[in-house]
Write a structure and sequence with these properties.
This protein is mainly beta. Helix content is about 10%, strand content about 60%.
């Protein structure tokens, strides 16, 4: 698929982000630096804290990529030999839906030292999956979930309101009810079995945001995170690996799906001892 994600573009943006953070850190370095925290200042508003947080999110998967509601993966089915006769198994068809932006929630666990922080988060949003087939529109409940590990670099750390950039890796999965089929070999095929499907992969996060600290125990934050994702596994009716399935029945086109998206979030964090 020509639209598959190119990780080198996202990687270049991530490299520029890291270089920018290092340059700003070098420019600000002076005799007021706190040697206990790399990049920190003696008069930083926050020196060190561990925290938990809750988020409200708005999430989607871009509809102008592979998740446009018109694509599908197929698996021809395995073969068995009995009495010298080879039998072809029934095909599996996994629909690749489109989903629209919806609201959801998230939780996070983090630790900060000086201007740097690391966070582990879980995000979930519920959607309606849509697939267009032969003039008909199929819809089904779906949920988009992700576990992410992100690293943050804060700026203007002497102030209670601090902008930040974040860079990380995510492990998203999209669950869709009854969008995986086992069919017979008639033309047109008849559906023999219907199952849920889970499409999963790995992504790169790059974002910006702002956090307002009332004190070291409480903050309000918001931001935008762009996620570049390569979905490379489908667990459907027959649990067939994606690298054994054909994209839209084309045996020369086997591989991953690009499923990028922009996440918007607001929330609050609470310091823990």
């Amino acid at each position: 698929m020509g639209r598959r994600m190119k990780f080198h573009k996202a990687g270049l943006l991530a490299l520029l982000l890291v270089l920018m953070a290092g340059w700003v850190n070098a420019v600000w370095a002076d005799e007021d630096m706190d040697m206990d925290y790399p990049g920190g200042q003696k008069n930083d508003f926050i020196k060190e804290r561990s925290y938990i947080g809750v988020l409200g999110i708005s999430a989607d998967i871009d509809q102008f990529g592979d998740f446009n509601g018109t694509n599908a993966f197929t698996f021809a089915g395995g073969t068995t030999v009995s009495g010298g006769v080879t039998y072809q198994g029934n095909p599996e068809v996994d629909l690749i839906p489109s989903i629209t932006r919806q609201f959801g929630f998230g939780v996070l666990l983090g630790h900060r030292e000086g201007p740097w922080a690391a966070e582990l988060s879980f995000l979930r949003s519920d959607h309606t999956a849509t697939f267009l087939s032969g003039g008909a529109t199929l819809t089904s409940p779906a949920s988009l979930q992700a576990i992410s590990i992100d690293f943050k670099r804060y700026f203007f750390t002497q102030l209670p309101t601090q902008p930040f950039v974040n860079l990380g890796v995510s492990f998203p999965w999209l669950w869709v009810r009854n969008f995986s089929y086992i069919t017979d070999q008639s033309i047109p095929p008849n559906i023999l079995q219907t199952n849920d499907e889970t499409i999963s992969g790995i992504g790169l996060n790059l974002g910006i945001g702002m956090e307002l600290y009332l004190d070291s125990n409480f903050s309000i934050l918001g931001g935008l995170t762009q996620r570049w994702t390569e979905f490379d596994q489908i667990n459907g009716a027959a649990k067939v690996p994606l690298n054994q399935m054909y994209f839209n029945g084309n045996p020369t086109d086997i591989g991953a799906l690009a499923g990028n998206g922009l996440n918007i979030y607001v929330g609050t964090t609470f310091g823990v001892e």
